[in-house]
Predict the structure.
Amino acid sequence: MPQFLDTSDPGFETAFAALLTAKREDAPDVDDAVAGIIADVRARGDAAVIELTAKFDRLDLTPETLAFSQDEIDAACARVSPEDRAALELASARIRAYHDRQMPADASWTDDSGATLGWRWSPVGAAGLYVPGGLASYPSSVLMNAIPAQVAGVPRLVVCAPTPDGVANPLVLLAARLSGVDTVYRIGGAQAIAALAYGTETIAPVDKITGPGNAYVAAAKRRVFGRVGIDMIAGPSEILVIADADNDPDWIAVDLLSQAEHDESAQSILITDDATFGQAVAKAVEARLKTLERRAIAGPSWRDFGAVITVRDLAEAAVLSDRIAPEHLELCVADPEALSARITHAGAIFLGAWTPEAIGDYIGGPNHVLPTARSARFSSGLSVMDFVKRTTLARMTPGALRAVGPSAERLARSESLEAHALSVRARLDRLNEAAE
Amino acid sequence: MPQFLDTSDPGFETAFAALLTAKREDAPDVDDAVAGIIADVRARGDAAVIELTAKFDRLDLTPETLAFSQDEIDAACARVSPEDRAALELASARIRAYHDRQMPADASWTDDSGATLGWRWSPVGAAGLYVPGGLASYPSSVLMNAIPAQVAGVPRLVVCAPTPDGVANPLVLLAARLSGVDTVYRIGGAQAIAALAYGTETIAPVDKITGPGNAYVAAAKRRVFGRVGIDMIAGPSEILVIADADNDPDWIAVDLLSQAEHDESAQSILITDDATFGQAVAKAVEARLKTLERRAIAGPSWRDFGAVITVRDLAEAAVLSDRIAPEHLELCVADPEALSARITHAGAIFLGAWTPEAIGDYIGGPNHVLPTARSARFSSGLSVMDFVKRTTLARMTPGALRAVGPSAERLARSESLEAHALSVRARLDRLNEAAE
């Protein structure tokens, strides 16, 4: 059974604090192994990547077959059913429409001193998207990673998608094609991250790496951070549903299970202002678990990490929600906008009972790569912003330099940085000579 | 002597590639020591911070004196000369005016399906700014880190500034006061980063940590990344000046030295289309080095890592600049805007010979915390964006769900995520019942 908490109970604060800090993931310490793999790929390039792929994915590659050929992708795309293709195309169009609005604007202005200031945005030169293999090979993740990069105008976009035993997911390849990916490499793990960061004879290095992965991929991303940009180190998925009694318990139950089925470490929490409704939802979850295909995953997740929290009112729910800082937040209440306005920390908010979180995973438009493990306190979901960077611009005139230069010179001297001061002084002296 | 390269030489490509990849910094491997310090602060809180401060900074603190009192800050601010105060206030006002324009806008719209989509921005809950102690205690860095956070609306803003032997810089305390900092702790090193990330009995944890620091601080930031947000792992400073022959060689020389004086590992590069002018600048650098206060730092930096590159024309200069992806780029040419338009990767561009880079360090308005070590390929300088995060919003209507829900259901099934599909199907079934 999940935990049942009630804010009216004297032990609530202790229990809630424990829920917040519970360690859900026992990630193996693979850092040394990953360091070795990265060093190997840096030293031996393609040969190392090929050996490691044979070892981990039981797949023999050559430099020529590291990437899928266009013919192979054509053939895979042709195997996708028209219905699946249409669904993927609709998702792709809606995700693109949402992200199109995220492109930030350049700026330029002249201030009182006469200085012209501003900034401009430009795309990263190349991006590499990691797509996990096996069961967790999700075409939707290809769209969610690649489309923001494409909208940003990234000139070169590659995917690394391991294909254990050579088995590829045609929908992944179609999703890559729909979102402007140039090349799909059939490699994975730390060796793929190393190849993307440092390059090999065959694989050109990229500037930014995004996408989820296992402990090896996460450790490798942390290690290459700085050499390249990375998106985030993602943890297990989470959902918080705030629901009043005026909901169908079964709808809320399947919503909770839609996170629980991802991973035994996933966490699904219901906050309600009606304890009886909370019990009804828990009962509905048990009923659904009897037949759910992924009950072997969703069951342990719900029982080990799930929680039903009864609050006095929705204001209290908002306060608890900000302490949780959930990745996904569903507001199944009469006035979701009003409740949403009270909440500061959440990756994505789904407003009203007609907006199940799964809509956001596939087709709503917003990105489904979202901050986990309370990191919505300080970070955002994936967006176009992850694939652009800003160059600041400044142009002084002689008049502007005369106005502000002496203060810069003084501050430089106060920091004992004489050459900084001299670089301003040399110009001010010229202006003074000219004025004489 | 610095390196002299010429793109017309047959060996140029090899020499330039070596310049790009030269390892300038031999950061000691302090990762194990830092892991120990972080574990100690997590386990013992204040007691560990106080012991480590006594050990490393030779300063005895108590929980009550970890932070400067308001009286101490008042007294320090009163010791600042009116001229220094005026310079700091002008800098503060100009930096604030620039960053005020960076606040991103919320968005909300209704699409063809009837779905309401959008996002909103909110500040991180608390930010901790690290200000290195000793020689590198820069009040300008306090402004550059704290003002973007203040503009973002961060409700709690703290500074950690070590004071070895108890010596504090009054300008640092005044800069903190001018930029809305709530509390200044006189602690530093990995112990300060650990205290900011995990909190102690006295120091409340923050959500985001920014600011430069030594190898211990950098390693600690990398380790706590994920628990909190961090800005970047900064390396030694760099400047690239592109200058034609129509410049005063001495101006360019002091500009190059203004980076070289930061650090023996700093790098200053001149690209010019006139070899004779390049020689004149090198001569001017040597002349300035004879008397420069920090010649013991600037000299080795220039001789070990400096370079003068002669190019055929400015178009070639732009191509090389993008390969360097400089932190600071000065364009001292007749039409700097035209040259700037050809360049994609740079942290900050200074347009025209009247805009020495030092203006940007102090008073221009743009931020001086900028991507180093070629990371301008994929990252931006510090900005308001580092202190806000985005929550995406979606609200479906029954009609919108009817339009796009079946595709979401299909995609969920294709990914074997049945509960995702059921959460959409449960609602679609209700709509179908209602329609019958």
